[in-house]
């Protein structure tokens, strides 16, 4: 007889895995989320002292539904794609699923996990004792009788009513997790496997070394215009979204691209080599970045390489600039002079003087027929920002950086 690991949502088991933990499921957690505890065996004499109780060790990874949904989103298993899978399945089974909607299925999963019903079938005797009559009536009106058909044992191509045949199981996991509140606790309990000797160590990340293919499937490499841009984005990601930081790595080697043209050449080289894995190249929203970005969009880049420019910034739509003769003028500098420093927040850009750092025009691009500009004192602005990230992140205006991180998260969706 086998032993099992369990995935539990709100303490309700939604997935059993015999003799092993599914590696794709493990990749949704992080090593820091591992917990080990010693808990008393149930059924012991309550009069026993704590030191006299016989205990068993538990081994778990604990996170929240919201964190796991975010991680699934950035590797491509979004709610929109989940709904498409469900709709396709429904069309194939229209003979007995004429009414059921994905949202009704979600409400069903949420109710069962929150109330700890003893069976996923709705109207078993045990569940009928727990459910108020109004809830049963509501189920009938919303197509829940079809769920009983969907959840019956003969449905071997679904898991808890969600299609799994011919689909990656992560669609099902994303669907289940989207059905409960973001704060719902999610536990990967593999205690039985460790206690039965199926794993030599409780650290599953040390036990299971992912293959390069598995690593490429969940991690994305970010390419930037130079090491300073890389440092700002990397530190910001760790500060703002620490639960997603492990899903991204940054190109870091001697000779890395430091201009838009060099970054464009690097992208072309990666595309020609047909490298496995996912890559995002981020260009400044200035004249040079826009020029190279447009050139790359004319090429047939492989689907695993995305090229982005920094997103439009409201602050930059009326921004102080020094003209060719030194005159001061306000203008829209999006796509003209928005390097990464422009996104460090208004607090940083105003500095001690309280006035926005000015844009200086550095040259005219004949091909693009526009000027190229950049902020004055860029190095100082970066240093102020990076110190604030470490010492006082609450004081930072994150509007610009958050827009960049959102573009990164959505790049493949």
What is the gist of this entry?
Helix content is 38%, strand content 20%. By secondary structure, it is of the alpha/beta class. The relative contact order is 0.11.
Structural class: alpha/beta
Distance N terminus to C terminus?
42 Å
Our Rg estimate from Cα atoms comes to 27 Å
The stretches of 5 or more residues where confidence is low (pLDDT under 50) are: none
Give the helix level as a range of percent.
25-40%
Shape: elongated
Largest sheet descriptor: 5 strands, antiparallel
In total, how many domains does the architecture comprise?
3
**How large is the count of helical segments?**
17
Task: Identify the strand order in the major beta sheet.
Answer: 2-1-7-4-3
- Mean pLDDT level: 85
Beta content? 15-25%
Q: Count of DSSP E strands?
A: 17
Give structural notes:
The chain is of the alpha/beta class. It has 3 domains: 4-207, no CATH class; 212-311, Dna Topoisomerase Vi A Subunit, Chain: A, domain 2 (3-Layer(aba) Sandwich); 314-392, no CATH class. The chain has 17 helices and 17 strands. It has helices at 23-26, 65-74, 79-92, 102-115, 125-130, 133-141, 144-150, 169-178, 191-195, 204-207, 212-218, 227-240, 260-273, 287-297, 346-350, 378-391, 399-409; strands at 4-9, 12-18, 34-40, 55-64, 158-159, 162-163, 185-189, 220-223, 248-250, 278-283, 285-286, 305-309, 319-322, 328-331, 337-338, 359-365, 370-375. The protein has a 5-stranded antiparallel beta sheet. Strands 9-8-10-12 form a 4-stranded parallel beta sheet. Helix 12 links the parallel strand 8 (220-223) and strand 9 (248-250). The chain is elongated. The two termini are 42 Å apart. The mean pLDDT is 85.
